[in-house]
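[Structure tokenization] protein backbone as discrete codes
[Encoding] learned vocabulary of local backbone shapes
[Protein] chain in single-letter code, fold in tokens
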Amino acid sequence: MLDNDVVQLKRSKNGAIQRVRVEKESNVIQLAAQLGALYQQAWRKPWTWPPKSRLLSAWKPSKNAGLVSGKCNDPKDWMLPEKYCDTTGVVYASSFSAMDAAVGEVMRFLQSKTVGAADSTGLVTALRNRLVRALPSRKLPNNNNNNNKAAFARLVACARKTELEETKNKPYKIDRKFLFCVLVVGNAELAPLAIAKAIAMAQDMLASRRAQQVVVVAGDNISGETLLPWLGCGFRALGATTTAATVEDAALPFNRRRLGMLLGAGGIGMVLKTELSMVKCQRLLPYPFWVKARLLAVQYGMERHWTANTLVPNS
């Protein structure tokens, strides 16, 4: 994270903005809640952890609600029966959908192009060709010793000139608006309320009789090895994450001792039903069916100043 040159904006009590550069290891994210390796062998390779965690979270609620039998590991026992297809809705919510796979693929491509991934012969050939292209004549000199020395001197001079030109470029600095650039637009504008909005949409579907039951699936994985260096820097630039090195100091309630939130990962799944659908399940299911909660209404809000720091330009 130090390589990304994170700069945090802090507002003083009088409203003045101060730029604080993150330059010490103690000032970067030390802790994050990460997903384990459960069920890793049960999935095919193209699946990354974010969609796995969301789908796994939906299985048990779907079974408890009587939508699937789930008696064994046979995929057929976890398929939605035909009789429920026209009356069941699905709401899928995610703030950073598909980013884990996209960023991971880009990073693998970049790593394949680094010096460490290349063989010595390829590096020597590439360097030779590059220096030759830098020569005015674009040709190698004759095999005369004096000519070779002169050519070598010119190559060294060209290399130094190229090096000086490359050092004029500004070093990489992460855009402090990166977090909002990669957020789903709706979440970036209305705050990260993906789960609350998904439940509200599910309730609207039930109230408008578009469905008799709705499966709500949501989840994200921003603390994995792929996204944490990037999204972690974004949250760090906002000053929203804790830099504590121990769980006892980091996992604190909202009070004056709290330094920020712990980044994590996970998924949730729930099934919302109408009164009529619930009564049918209680009558038809072979096992006891209990109502876990009753949804009366959904209301969510946001702090209107939560993105205030992003209005300040980078320069």
Remarks:
- The first strand starts at residue 7 and ends at 11.
- The chain has one domain: 2-102+175-301.
- The CA atoms of residues 95 and 184 lie 6 Å apart.
